[in-house]
Structures are given as structure tokens and as C-alpha cells.
Amino acid sequence: MTYSYIYIIGTGKVAKECQKIANDFFRQEVNFVKNIENLDDFFKNLKNCLIISANNFYIFKKECIQKNTIINYHNALLPFHRGCNAHIWSIWENDKKTGITWHMVKESIDTGDILVQKEIKLDNNCTALSLLNAQHKLALTLFREALEILKNKTFKMQISGGGYHKKLSLPNNGYLDLTWNKEKISRFLRAMDCGALSGVPKARLEILGEEREILFYEINELDLILNLSDNVILKITKE
Hints:
By secondary structure, the chain is of the alpha/beta class. Helices cover about 30% and strands about 25% of the residues.
């Protein structure tokens, strides 16, 4: 299996580690796509290349997909939770399991043939941040296997369905509703607990006619404690 060039596009540890693994697997230089002003122009000029999309938000155009081989890491068990922020939606929708998928890229987002998948069980303590970290580790563990399957062309066709989430979509538009029961409040707060560097806005709460960010939260057997912006602490007892 020979490619004219091998490129990787993505951010963080996942992309960096995938580059090392791919270098070793193919015995061919794997180049990072970065500091390029117009990605559309760059990708449309490629032909017979392998492109590895790892923790990447660029959407490949039809011309690039048709002329190259592209594989992508998605942090869910496709076909479920296609699109963005799958880890958030897995918690919010009360899934009992999620996982990761390495798959081929087709013209429709997250619909390509599956290379490899593996499950992660969810519990009532899981936050979006802890889940995403677990998914990234699993993606790296399975990456070499995904490349072997790519080499042998033993893909599995992906079934339809599963739903799609847009980039700016958030559970309940990102607002906590205090009329929810304790379990639903917990799911919402854990789903929106993405970490400071995620780019996902903090959960918000409308209270006494004002809107505040939820900076920290604690849920114990008796109380829900919310640390809000402007040094406001809200303590609520929920059944």
C-alpha cells in the first residue's frame, strides 16, 4: 500500500501520537497539516494521498474525498452521535455505553465504512471531560489496528440512523432547568463539564431575572450546590 504523501490533520496529543504510530507503520514520512491559510485550496490539489483526521474539525470537500484516502477518529460508536460534541450528547441522552470509531471519510459527515470500534461503559460519575480523555486514550490504542484494517481493506459498512449534532448545539441550549429531577440535573451538569480549554461555553442558569454562569457544582446525597458567576452560591435540596 503506497501513497504519494501521508498527511495528518488535528490537534493535541491524539494527532501527535497518531503521527508517530503512522510513521512507524508505513515507514513513510507523515506530515502535519498546519499553518496553512486556505485548507480548501491545499486539499483540493492532493491526489493519491492518505489523510489521517485525528481530533480535527475541518470538513473535507468532495473533490479531496474522491481523489484520496481519508480516515477519521470519531468519539462515539457510529452511527450514533454523528457530528460534534458526541461525548456531551452521550452523557446527556443517558447512554449506557459509548466508545470510539475509526472510519473512512465519505461526502456525508461521519457516514463512512467502519475500520474499528470499541465500547466504553458509562456510569453516573462520568463527566464530558473524563469521557473525552478516556476516548482519546482508546483511539490511540486502536489506531494501529485501524491501519491494519485499512491495509487489508476489511471495512465494515456503517448502518444508517443515529442522529446528528451541529457544532453549536448543546443540551437545553446550555441552560440548567431547576425544575428537573436530581438525576436529570446531574446528567446535564456532567454533560456540560468539559474543562476550561474545551471551547464549549459554561452551563448557564437564569435566576431572579438574571443570567449567570455555573462555574463549579457539587451533587451529594442531600444537596445540589452551584457556584455561580459574581460570587453567588446556590444550595438546593432535591429529592
